[in-house]
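Hey, I was hoping to borrow your eyes for a little while. For a while now I've been wondering how a particular protein folds. The fold is given in discrete form, as structure tokens running alongside the sequence. Could you read through the record and tell me how the tokens relate to the sequence? Take your time with it, there's no hurry, and the full record follows here:
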Amino acid sequence: MMKILNKTWPSMLLGTLLAVSVISCKPKVSDADLKAKVESVTASNPNVVVSVKEGVVTLSGTVASEEEKNSLAEAAKNADAKHVKSVINELTVETAPIVTSTDDADLTAKVVDATKDYPTVKAEVKGGIITVTGSIEQARVQPLKMALDALNPKKVDMSALTVK
């Protein structure tokens, strides 16, 4: 009995090791392959840069909206959900540039409307800059400033305004 056990022991050990190694060996996908898969699902946005390190996908660049940012991160995860460990979403949402008003006649008309409730305030427009003079109560300074800023002039100069 001992001779049989001594002869079969190495075969059993080898068989067990082989079975364990086959079970624990799942196919490993390279970072380059993962990157290619993620890039294929983000290709519709040329401003997105994909990098992958040890299964962790990082997205960077700019997108037009928060929805697009979240959608791209989800698409990256689902490109190969089995092998993408996580997604680091460093995408930034592009904000629309503020267009300043440089047409003095148009801006003057808007300033007249914005200051109509401030009879002690005078505003003049020159070169896209609103210069405010006169006097105003402290509590009304901020609403006036916000109303004038909303017109998108180059600048609102309230330095000559007297605050009571």
The longest helix spans residues 2-24. The helical segments are 2-24, 31-42, 66-79, 104-114, 138-149. The longest strand covers residues 155-163. The chain has two domains: 31-93, 104-163.
